[in-house]
Amino acid sequence: MPSRRPRPTSLTHVVWELTLACDLACGHCGSRAGPRRNEELSTDEAIDVVRQIAEMGTQEVSLIGGEAYLRDDWHRIARAIYDEGMICSMVSGGRGFNKERAALAAAAKIDSVSISIDGMAATHDMQRGVEGSFDAALQALINLREAGVAVSANSQINRISFPDLDAMLDLFLEHQCHGWQVAMTVPMGRAADRPEWLLQPSDLLVVFPKLAELAERGRTGGLRLFPGNNVGYFGPHEDTLRGHLSAASEGSYYQGCHAGVTTLGLEADGAVKGCPSLPTNSYTGGHVRDAPIRRIWDESEELRFARSSRSHELWGFCKGCYYAEVCRAGCSWTAHVFFGRRGNNPYCHHRAVVHHERGERERLVLVESAAGEPFDHGRWEIIVEPVADSSVAPWSRPETTRPRRKLSVVR
Fold first, then answer.
1. pLDDT in tens, 169-207
2. Where would a tag sit more exposed on the chain, N or C end, judged by fewer CB atoms within 10 A?
3. Angle at the Cα of 328 from the Cα atoms of 244 and 273, rounded to 5 degrees
4. Are 41 and 74 in contact (CB under 8 A)?
5. How far from each other are the two terminal CA atoms of the chain, in whole angstroms?
6. SS3 annotation, 343-409
7. d(CA 255, CA 390)
8. CA distances from 87 to 42, 103, 210, 251 (A)
């Protein structure tokens, strides 16, 4: 088993939802973005947040939404981050990233903008809920590059997007993306309403070899594939997928959830979480209007859960896993939105390989639907079943519907 390395607990990366307002209608959106939150932070409050996180040693701040540029002051906040000595990056659906906004991003010294693209045109538009959103995303890449801002891409991996991955890599290389972050779609928010989109655990036997192949091919073209926290773990392609993320020349491996360890998530109304993806109700440790962020970081149990041993909360396959002490059941967000608690993560390559070698597979079954609120989730159960044919075959793409509305001018 890999030796356990000490876990640093200093804040280095903040992911900040500037607004929940959004100009897309994504079918997999965990926050069910669209309308703004009540009582979003004012400009002055946001600038004070920038000061606080800078004093805590933050190195990078990633602005997300909703759609961050739908706040009129987004570029002022971005410039304040830069002026405090931190790197500012941004994640965007790209629908309204026109030349004017690209110029504002450059003037604000935004280091890089990642555009969300989840397939080629038909696949992307269907998932994003707006016809023409794919073309708008590509134009955003062009506008940003022409303004002098580095660009990358990020994608949801699910049964809808998977068949397009090879073509997507070619597209990102063509558009000079320096990186491509991938994460697996999990059943939170609107994605909880679409179980047919989600990967099954045995699908990982097809997905991870493909991601490793894409990582190798991208590297030769100058693009790095970055696995999200719920992509892994400890399978035969771990070093290919994650090795470049470490200063070590070789042997890099997943070392557990970083929520509240080195990362922090901020919601638009000032709620503080250890990770922006975690459900708000269960993981909010405090609000910036009520307490200094450093106090919330230091004292809140909702943020501290990943800093110490978590062996007591492991269950199911993860409890007896060889890698349990290091992995700690992987991504807390993924486990929680499947089962309503941490400690057992079905999206694990090692786990899928072990079951496959036993002539069986795990199947996730929805037993309780989500309520329809932002960051909500239902509840699933795991069924372990024998597999008569031990070969691994790709699945068929589920039937899907066309986008609900056409692209219109964003003002």
1. 999 999 999 999 999 999 999 999 999 999 999 999 999
2. C
3. 85
4. no
5. 54
6. CCCCCCHHHHHHHHHCCEEEEEEEEECCCCCCCCECEEEEEEEECCCCCCCCCCCCCCCCCCEECCC
7. 31
8. 22, 18, 32, 28
Q: Residue length, the chain?
A: 411
Helices (H) and strands (E) counted in the chain, each on its own, are 14, 14
SS (H, E, C) 225-270: EEECCCCCCCCCCHHHHHHHHCCCCCCCCCCCCCECCCEEEECCCC
- Res 140: pLDDT: 98
Alpha carbons within 13 angstroms on the beta-carbon side of residue 376 total 11
Mean pLDDT of 20-40: 97
The per-residue pLDDT for range 253-277, each reduced to its tens digit, is 788 899 999 999 999 999 999 999 9
How is the beta sheet containing 112-116 ordered, strand by strand? Answer: 224-227, 179-184, 150-157, 112-116, 87-92, 60-64, 13-17, 263-266, 271-273, 286-287
What does the block give as tokens for 384? 């372990």
Phi-psi region of 247 (alpha: psi -120 to 50; beta: other; left: phi over 0): alpha
pLDDT at 291 over 70: yes
Q: Which two tokens stand for residue 400?
A: 């899907």
Express each pLDDT in 70-81 by its tens digit: 999 999 999 999
Q: Rounded distance, CA 19 to CA 41, Å?
A: 9
Rounded-to-integer distance, Cα 154 and Cα 217, Å: 17
Q: Using an 8 Å Cβ cutoff, are 120 and 167 in contact? A: yes
What is Dmax (Cα atoms) for the chain?
A: 62
Q: 65-81 in b/e burial notation, b at 16+ Cβ within 10 A?
A: bbbbbbbebbbebbbbb
- In this prediction, residue 252 carries a pLDDT of 66
Buried b (16+ CB within 10 A) or exposed e, 143-153: bbbebebbbbb
**Interval 306-310 mean pLDDT:** 88
> Both tokens of residue 315?
């269950």
Six-digit token string for 36: 């703004």
Distance CA 28, CA 212 (A): 24
